[in-house]
């Protein structure tokens, strides 16, 4: 007769295997969504003959990324509904209104007050935000939403599979940083890719704590994510500002 301990081993192994399979499936879906949405964006920009997608067609690309966010939510609907009910979603939506209002005030009134970026100091292939108008941040807000849905899907899947906070943090740091390394294949400068990759690694490591330990962690995650772009744009405008005599 087999002992109780022997009977428990296969169950534990089976649970671990299922958990690993769930995480692997989530990683595969997230990677596919990220890559296809990114390449689709650049193909759309090229087909429309735009120099800057976000600035050139802000409404189109806002809808584009909202569509991707909706698709991600649908693919992970069982996971999302398991952790959020309609009442919580409604409450979070209402709370996000003043946060988004603050961001809107920054881009409409604060951004124009920043010194202009010098074309001579800017890299030969500058990222869009360096010379962007306030309209740039409308699709960027939708893009951040899409990224946060993907991050939440990975974190919640790993937590449900039984992974610890530290392990999830390491995994998210590698995943978030790794995805941003792909910017190198889109023609961005090494300095830009390095800065954003390091920031993504640090932010990726922080995200699991926000989602799993902090009340209303989504607000903090979205706010910090958006705030990084605001801070980066502000510093860039000052560091690469055109001199007074230019």
Automatic annotation (TrEMBL):
This is CAAX protease self-immunity. It comes from Antarctobacter heliothermus. It comes from the Bacteria. The chain crosses the membrane at residues 23-42, 62-80, 92-114, 134-156, 163-185, 191-212, 224-245. Keywords: Membrane, Transmembrane, Transmembrane helix.
């Amino acid at each position: 007769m087999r002992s109780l301990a022997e009977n428990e081993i296969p169950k534990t192994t089976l649970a671990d295997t299922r958990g690993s399979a769930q995480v692997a499936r989530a990683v595969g879906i997230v990677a596919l969504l990220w890559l296809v949405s990114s390449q689709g964006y650049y193909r759309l920009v090229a087909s429309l003959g735009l120099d800057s997608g976000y600035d050139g067609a802000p409404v189109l690309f806002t809808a584009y990324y909202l569509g991707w966010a909706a698709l991600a939510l649908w693919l992970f609907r069982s996971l999302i509904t398991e952790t959020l009910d309609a009442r919580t979603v409604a409450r979070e939506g209402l709370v996000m209104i003043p946060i988004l209002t603050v961001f809107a005030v920054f881009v409409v009134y604060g951004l124009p007050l920043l010194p202009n970026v010098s074309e001579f100091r800017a890299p030969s292939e500058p990222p869009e935000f360096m010379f962007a108008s306030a309209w740039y941040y409308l699709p960027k807000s939708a893009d951040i939403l899409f990224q946060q849905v993907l991050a939440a899907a990975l974190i919640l899947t790993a937590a449900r599979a039984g992974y610890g906070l530290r392990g999830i943090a390491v995994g998210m740091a590698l995943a978030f940083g790794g995805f941003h390394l792909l910017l190198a294949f889109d023609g961005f400068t090494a300095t830009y890719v390095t800065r954003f990759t390091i920031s993504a690694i640090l932010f990726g490591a922080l995200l699991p704590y926000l989602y799993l330990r902090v009340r209303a962690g989504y607000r903090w995650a979205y706010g910090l994510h958006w705030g990084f772009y605001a801070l980066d744009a502000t510093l860039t405008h000052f560091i690469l500002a055109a001199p007074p005599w230019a």
